[in-house]
Amino acid sequence: MVKFLHTADWQLGMTRHFLKGEAQARFNDARLNAIEQIGSIAINEGCQFVVVCGDVFESNQVERQVLTRALERMGAVSGVTFYLLPGNHDPLDAASIYRSPTFTKHRPDNVVVLDGSGTVQPVPGVELIAAPWRNKHPTTDLVAEACRGLGATHAIRIVVGHGVVDSMSPNPDDPRLISLARLEEKVEAGLIQFVALGDRHSKTDVGSTGRVWYAGAPEPTDYDEVDPGHVLVAELDAYGANVGARQVGTWRFVRREWQLSEDDDLHALEDWLKSQPNKERCIVKLGLVGTVSLAQKARLDGILEDMADRFAALDAWESRSDLAVMPNNVDVEEIGLSGFAREALEELSEKATAESGEESLVARDALALLYRLAGARE
Amino acid sequence: MKLHRIRLRNFRGVRDREVEFAESGVTIVEGPNEVGKSSIAEALELAIEYPDSSRHRKIQSAKPEDRDEGPEVEIEMSTGPYVLTYQKRWIRRPTTTLNVTAPQSENHTGRAAHDRLEAILRETLDDDLRLALQIEQGTELKLPSFSIPSMRRALENATDGDASDAEDEDLVERIGVEFERYWTATGRVTGKRIAAAKEVEEARERVQGLKEQMDKIEGDAAEMVRLAEEARGIAQTLQELAESERKLTEEWAAIDRLQTDLERIDAVHVAASSKRQQALGEHQHREEMKDDLEDGAKALTDLEAEAELAAPALFAATGQSEEAAVSLKAAADALRRAREGQDRAFGDRNFLQDEIDEELISERYERYKDARQLLRDSEEFLESAKVNEEVLADIERAYNEDMKAQAAVESAAAKVEATALSDIALRLDDEEFELETDERREILVEDRVELSVPGVVRFRVSAAPEARVLAQQRRGVHEEYLRLCARVGVSDFEDARRAEQARRDAIRNRDDARAAMRRELRDWTAEFMASRIASLKANVVSYPQQRAEGPPMPVNLDEALRIARESSGKVEDCERELQVRETVWKEREEYLNKVRLQQAELAARVDVARGRQKEASERLAAARESVSDEDILVALNMAKQVFEVSIKSLEEAKGRLKAADPDSLRARLDNVSDAKGRLETQLRTNEGRQHEIRASLELRGEMGLHGSYEGAVSRFEQAQREHEGEESRARAAKLLKETFDKHRRLANQRNIKPLKERIDWLGGLVFGPTFEVKLDDEELRVVGRTLDGVTLEVDQLSTGAREQLGVLSRLACAAIVSPEDGGAPVMIDDALGWSDPQRLQSMGAAIAVAGKQCQIVILTCFPGRYAHVGNAEVVRL
Q1: Is A104 on the interface with B (CB under 8 A)?
Q2: A363 touches chain B (CB under 8 A)
Q3: How do the domains of chain B map onto residue ranges?
Q4: Which of A84, A157, B575, B815 makes a 20 to 30 Å CA pair with A237?
Q5: Over the stretch B249-289, which tens digit does the pLDDT of each residue have?
Q6: Which residues form the domain of A167?
Q7: Which residue from A minimizes the CA distance to B154?
């Protein structure tokens, strides 16, 4: 029986361009803190070792400061060894971070790179079959290759791999895909007891054996991740696997579409934004659709401006946004123009309601500007 | 705003004066400057502007100088819905009171009164308009702009447009400010935006640069994978090649053995071949010796026969040569004789020719000498001739004059005609003469004569006095004529004419003589001609004495010429004959020499052949003594047999080697070796390259470019977002401004119509029906005037016209803006100083007409200037 912690896709050194100023620094820190958190879970739950299934680093070229800090955090977790698998982001090629002088110099004893050079035994009776990425563009199923020729054994075998399993890929012709059937065959045959995978940032139980898992990213990295923010604690013996998820992530990526047309919609949006917990660690993208008046647009701008500083990031979901700004009678009255100024307003309104085109967009902006300038005189 | 009444106390020079203004119409306030007609406008200004506590310079100067009283103003007015009385005193016991009677009664004092009035005015009066409607004395003549909210509102009302207000103007200004945040005044992109665009571009370039570096690392890593793969492939191939090389080398050893066999057999073959060659040579040599002996005997026999035949040919050639020499000599003699004949014929011909020449040239010489004498004579005559054409003309003229004078004398003189009736003696002055019966004599009396029959009668005849004068004159003319003749030595005109003819003849002779001399001499000189004659004479004398003997001298030159021609022909014939004979002789001589040489050579050859034959015979005998002919033949056959055997062995060995195909094996072996070498080089290059990339990657990997790259991307995206935001704001501001400007312009163009019509109408009263103004639709200012179809800009107008336009435009404006809508009275402080009386009259009418629609206050110290304003109320201060 063996108990270990399965994690992957730390993506250390990742930059999110929509994060401004200190938010990026906090985002980075959260990723390093996750290492500590993982260490604590491993110690507290009696895990004998930790496997990190690829993409430990965002790139082989991450700043060396990122590397040294990560090694330091891992080194601080006493009694637990971290087995790092090179993935597609940090392959074990000639430029590999794992072969860099800094890594060599600062690697603590409890950090081991799974370079695929041979069977690794983290504890007696347990074998790690590693399928590291040796370059960015492999042409075969690396996991299948690592498992080739495995014979019967008394040891518990854990396959450590990185990549997409064929059952989840939209492109079945990709030669790099990990064949789930072959893995399950070996699992059924008792040649493998567990397959720890990385690459998919969402925690996923793959196939039907309950022994093939993606741990997901410990801290989320993007909006489209289904269930990120976990690590897995796996207990294995010859008869079965007991896999449990532990919450680690502190950040959230939230993406939502809003239909706006009434004042109530604006209220609802504002309330929703206000209700979000831990805003400073929350990254929000809004898709705003509908038609609003000048006054509503001004109010919306006010809400977003007000909220922008509270969230780590509050951005427009460009591909899902289509918000038209049309002056209505109330606007016109509110602006209170007469004479030629009113005629000008009417012309701009006409342009703004034109079906599409750059001119109508400019006209909408001009109307909003007019609304602001006219409002500013009161 | 409408003024009803104003009262000034202790205000400048005014002790206490109240002026009531006409409700609508014109109020003229007259009074000298010092009385303070301008004080009324000033008092109104100060009362509104300054609180009673003010110590402003303007307030101080309103205080009367001669007493210690505070200036005080009381105004009654309506403005908007308000009707009020406002009183204010400054400096001494300052007070302010405001009594409003409509729309609701209200009373205020002190500061509250001041503030309330201010509020009422702000609410009901367009202060800009009020100021625009004032014409102060002596201020500049610039025409006012009526782009004032109340004016615009009134115009918009008048044109049924929506009224715009001050806030709209304010908005326009804000739009302008917003526009200028992004665009320059001329509509160009501001420097800030240009800089932002540049920043974005630079950020993009930074990203690009870092991306390239990252890609290079990635590329190198991929290259390393490829190189490792390649190195593995090369090593594998090298191993395979080494195995091939080993096998091929074994095969090559067998071929080496065959090669050695072949070399040995070839050596045996070469020896056999050499021996055979030697036997063949010896055999051939003996055969040649035998042939030589046979050939030599035959050749000797032929030569000896040839020598015998050669002797008669030599004898014949010698005879022919001698014969040709005799013939040649005979021809040479004939030529010599012909040449002697030719010399004699030529001498005769020359002698006869000289004789003729001598005669002809001597004649020419004589003619030449005659001409030379004539030339000398003519020249001598011409030198002494005094009469010429000119002199002759002078004499002719004098002669004619003399003749004319003579005729005049004759016609004027008295004529006495005496006819003798019988023979009679008469005496005329001192001359006595006789007349026979019927003889008549005519006597011409120029002066007076006495004619008498001596002893019988005496007649004294006198000519008229003019006859005497004419006679006198004629004498003068005649003397001149005679003097001219005498000067050139002639007796009279006829004589002179002859002398001139003689001179002309002499000139012709001279010219003829010169021509004759030229003709005779041609290109010779006289001296040459003389010497030529002498030389010919000498020849003619000497030739007959020295002539060679022979036939007699020809009878004439023609005969001599014929003989000379014949002798030349004969010489030529002889020369040709001599040449022919000489050629024949030379040919025969050459042939003789050749025959002699051939015979000598033949004799020598016979000797040589005999010697050789003897030597050959001796050599063959000696050789046979050494080896017999039979022995040589036996040795030759033996060598041939051995050679045949060696050839067969050699062919067999070659066949064995060829069957083993050494070329092909060698090629394969070489190829394997070359491939190995090439691949080893390739492997070394590969390893070197891997080493190089590894070192580079180690160095660059440690730079941790990912963070820099991502940071640069963030900065670029941020800059781009901001820039795009700024650009869309700029576009919005531009569109907003352009749209506003456009509608404002259109509105202005619509709205100015009533103002223009009003000014045109008032102007029509002053300048006539063709008057029209041009307004700037933005500024609402008069910028030009058309009169009788001629348009002038304001600047081109006279000062008077400009001042009149200023007054008219204000009147029109005041008439358009009603007092309820912020309008104000037109205040004219002694304007129209530049207008002539006629213009003042029509201006008066225009002011009176305008006064029906607005309040007009005229302050003046020239009562007459506004006398033509018909309906004015006049107040005298």
Answers
A1: no
A2: yes
A3: 388-413+464-487, 415-462
A4: A84
A5: 888 888 888 888 889 888 888 988 898 898 899 889 888 88
A6: 2-247
A7: A339
